[in-house]
TrEMBL record:
Recorded superkingdom: Bacteria
InterPro entries, alphabetized: NAD(P)-bd_dom_sf, Sc_DH/Rdtase_CS, SDR_fam
UniProt protein name: Sugar dehydrogenase
Organism annotation: Flavilitoribacter nigricans (strain ATCC 23147 / DSM 23189 / NBRC 102662 / NCIMB 1420 / SS-2)
PROSITE patterns xref list: ADH_SHORT (PS00061)
MF annotations from Gene Ontology: oxidoreductase activity, acting on the CH-OH group of donors, NAD or NADP as acceptor
Protein family (similarity comment): Belongs to the short-chain dehydrogenases/reductases (SDR) family.
Amino acid sequence: MQKPNTRLAGQTCIVTGGSSGIGAAVAMAIGQEGANVVVNYHSDAESAEQIAHEISKHNLCGDAIPFKCDVSKEDQVVDMFQKAINHFGTVDICIPNAGIQRDFPLHEMPLKEWQFVIDVNLTGQFLCAREAIREFLRRGPRPDVSASLGKIIHMSSVHEVIPWAGHANYAASKGGLVMLMQSICQQYAPQKVRCNSIAPGAIKTPINQEVWSDPESLEKLYDLIPYKRIGIPDDIGSVAAWLASDESEYINGTTIFVDGGMTCYPGFTENG
Ligand code: NAD
């Protein structure tokens, strides 16, 4: 880990799906900034414990704990927030990041696979955002640590704007996040809640391992990325830490694309 900054000292953050990939990098980046971190995990307790341990070891101002919870289950999300509040006093930053893919051509997609993806990727993010806002409103401002009442950063995807054949459940869940995020901003910005999304492009994590582990499909992927490299989880971690900090205070109700230019549709380059 690099030398810690303290842009988030005195604050507490819940990162869901924090035991791997983007969530792990986000948890580390937030911890490096001095915040307490709840590293949520679904099944990989060992990795979550390791990440929490790593954060605690290097965090000059805060601490980290692993916490098991299925984000698609209301009672478990409510319990996670309650335990986090009991342990750290409050929650200042919520980063609902957990997400899954279950890929099928639409005509072959079983309802349960549609529902599963919506439950985790969209309902899970709703449940976390709702509990975060309840806590922000209950607790009131903390001007000593942040100009905002609280911050929510949804982990979306370029597929909130790029259609994705064979992945309609995933694309629909991310498209739904845009309206969830903006509706939250519209309603709670007057109370100084900031709600934004990060939309990663192709980032090297377990979710897309079959693409980057095969040299041929990796080469094909570069056709979609003007910047000609696959992203790494730290590309997202650093943006999340900044977006959670007061340096980005006036950013509200928007999506930050972190995609090497993927949403500039490079397929059109030679078709002018
Ligand atoms: P990942 O598979 O490493 O991470 C997903 C995490 O979510 C895992 O830790 C998993 O255990 C957790 N999870 C799954 N179901 C859960 C549940 N019910 N409750 C709690 N946790 C659960 O993949 P990743 O790439 O790090 O994905 C993180 C987020 O980034 C996802 O929302 C994904 O859609 C988004 N994203 C990833 C990419 C990419 O290229 N990797 C691109 C765009 C968006």
